[in-house]
Design a protein that fits this description.
This protein is an alpha+beta fold and 196 residues long. It has seven helices and six strands, in the order ααααβαβαββββα.
Length: 196
């Protein structure tokens, strides 16, 4: 084959990749402030990070980070941010606790998800108009007597580089413990709950 033809084909391929990357970058640049985001903008922002999140968390050796996307989604998608540092969150729950979790019980002090339930919350935000990945927050339900100070919950996290995150159990539970009427669960926003 002609060398000139091969070089032309290679140049076209590089140009096409650069154009695609530029289009992706432009589509993932947002002018709005987070409090002003519409649900369409929230959904568009998630599309920009959807594939990057599990890849980032999975760069380490955390067992939850490696499998959480195989679990049930606990909402139709992320909603406007609130807790967890004002980040957008998207929640997944393992098979053990999924059915109990998506009842979104919020008025029963006796309600408990089953021991063995694991919840993973992806997080990300917007900085300088572009998405920025945050930690993967993890809650694991154990027997209450195994972790009495946190009502049977163990909190953990994975940084965006896949490394474990230092987590203060009391710091996390100071907030989650306020949800005693739902087994310490702060559910996704109403507008993205399944079946709402």
């Amino acid at each position: 084959m002609n060398t000139r033809l091969l070089l032309s084909a290679a140049a076209l391929a590089v140009a096409a990749t650069a154009t695609s990357a530029q289009a992706q970058s432009e589509a993932c640049t947002f002018d709005a402030e987070i409090p002003d985001f519409t649900q369409a903008q929230i959904d568009a922002l998630y599309e920009c990070v959807r594939d990057e999140l599990p890849a980032a968390y999975g760069a380490g050796d955390d067992e939850v980070a490696a499998v959480y996307r195989e679990w049930g989604a606990a909402a139709t998608g992320p909603a406007a941010p609130g807790f967890h540092g004002g980040r957008f969150l998207n929640t997944f729950v393992n098979e053990v606790g999924y059915d109990a979790y998506i009842t979104y019980e919020d008025d029963d002090e006796a309600f408990e998800v089953p021991v063995g339930t694991v919840i993973a919350k992806e997080s990300y935000t917007l900085r300088d108009g572009a998405p920025r990945i945050g930690p993967l927050f993890i809650m694991t339900r154990v027997a209450t007597d195994e972790s009495p100070d946190t009502d049977g919950w163990v909190y953990a996290g994975v940084q965006p580089n896949g490394n474990p995150m230092g987590v203060s159990q009391s710091f996390c539970h100071d907030c989650h413990g306020g949800y005693s009427f739902s087994d310490s669960l702060g559910y996704p926003a109403y507008e993205v709950r399944l079946g709402q």
